Amino acid sequence: MTSKPNTVVGTLESRLFINGRWRNAENDKTFQVYNPATGEVLTSVSDASAADGRAALDAAASAQRQWARTAPRVRSEILRSAFDAVTARAEEFATLITLEMGKPLAEARAEVTYGAEYLRWFAEEAVRIGGRYTTAPDGRTRLLVHKRPVGPSLLITPWNFPLAMATRKIAPAIAAGCTMILKPAALTPLTSLLLTNVLADAGVPAGVLNVVPTSTAGAVVSGLMTDSRLRKLSFTGSTEVGRRLLADSATQVLRTSMELGGNAPFLVFEDADIDAAVEGALQAKLRNMGEACTAANRFLVQESVADEFTDKLTQRMAAMVVGPGMSAGTHIGPLIDEESRAKVHELVENAVRGGAVVRTGGSPVDGPGYFYRPTVLADVEPDARLLREEIFGPVAPVVRFATEDQAVAAANNTEYGLVAYVYTKDTGRTLRLLEEIESGMLGINVGVVSNPAAPFGGVKQSGLGREGGTEGIDEYLETRYAGLSDPYA
Ligand code: NAP
């Protein structure tokens, strides 16, 4: 079924963007984009083939040399005007995000603010690419260290933050002087297409940014990764696909940035402010309906405060309004598709079979769309699958611990290491956890850590590299050096 087109969707350019031009796929194919709140078709988008991918790389490779010579100030100003334009068109972006991805409009607006900030942040970083000139220890040679753009980059994004995941890659690539091909998620290409429009209007030259939505990611991407003109892959998505792409990157020895899955522990100690911990838990669990790599996946709570924390969390989760993201008052939108919802329910059923107690929720919502009730599970057994796998839904499993050592061991008992959250007022404990918990990011008495000014990324199988912060631009730069003879010789 196709719904009446929303005006933002109706006026959107939905073709491929290659070498500064909007064009159909070479075989004129399209694929459909759905609204997860209704299951209805929103619109159709051009479906890039492997040949279209190659055409995008032709454009990126041809534009690279000239783009690398562009003055940093010019690249900075382009990003700054894109920031202004996204901010001015925030409502259009938020509407598209909610329509194609499902999150409540208020959260989509927050994503626009967050996503736009990467454009402003890297506008500021573009003019601060440094180098150094030193004397070698023997006093004779001089060492000149400088940074150059890596070259044509392939940027692959997931569906859960359609704007922010794109700006977090595009902005540092532009700032560094790399040309690029963006392959957005097939479930949510519309926001990327509006962003492309904005960036082209902001002055990104032809060939620098090429965008190829596709329903055949494997074919398009493998065609690009075996081409020696491609020099970098920046991927955000699941660890499973990331592992495969890392193996494929070996063929051309590509630079890689991999932002992969998570299994965040959320630790509550007996000295914590429990009301603040519940507030943080709601943010860490329910932001994006739990469909975030940073979502709290396991609540580890010290025995003496476990009942109080679980009761208060249950009360708040049960009061959440589930409904379409476009409706005022909605706290929890739909999950992205039926397959994802079925997986969330399967994980809940597996935990319940193992002895977990459903304190609230525990089932899908009947009717159109892919809604799932906010769920709290108490007394979850240590071998439950949802303690090992990403839940990607509004489900909070609570597990008790007795000592700090047990808490740390449980927190680290995962192959993932993206983020962890701790609630405690004890400074000594905080510092011990900072050193002992194996994660790229730690929230200390806060439920959200994402910030464009901070280096976002994971350890262990959550990934390689960092996005944002002063580190983010380095992912798109090579360090080179020249040795110079002694000027006094
Ligand atoms: P996904 O299935 O791994 O897909 C991510 C992207 O990879 C999509 O664009 C997808 O295209 C593409 N892709 C899939 N198979 C591919 C293949 N064989 N070759 C090349 N590209 C391929 O992940 P997702 O379901 O979209 O996103 C959820 C995952 O992303 C979760 O695991 C989450 O934790 C992770 N994530 C991590 C971060 C972070 O910063 N660490 C941030 C957000 C999300 P299609 O859309 O066409 O399948």
UniProtKB/TrEMBL annotation:
Active site: E259
Top enzyme category: oxidoreductase
Record key words, sorted: Oxidoreductase
Occurrences of domain Aldehyde dehydrogenase (ranges): 22-480
Ranges in a coiled coil: none
Top-rank taxon, per record: Bacteria
The keyword Acyltransferase is assigned to this record: no
Molecular function GO labels: oxidoreductase activity
Its EC number(s): 1.2.1.-
InterPro entries: Ald_DH/histidinol_DH, Ald_DH_C, Ald_DH_CS_CYS, Ald_DH_CS_GLU, Ald_DH_N, Aldehyde_DH_dom, Aldehyde_DH_Superfamily
PANTHER family: SUCCINATE-SEMIALDEHYDE DEHYDROGENASE, MITOCHONDRIAL
Family note: Belongs to the aldehyde dehydrogenase family.
Name of the protein in its database record: NAD-dependent succinate-semialdehyde dehydrogenase
Origin species: Nocardia xishanensis
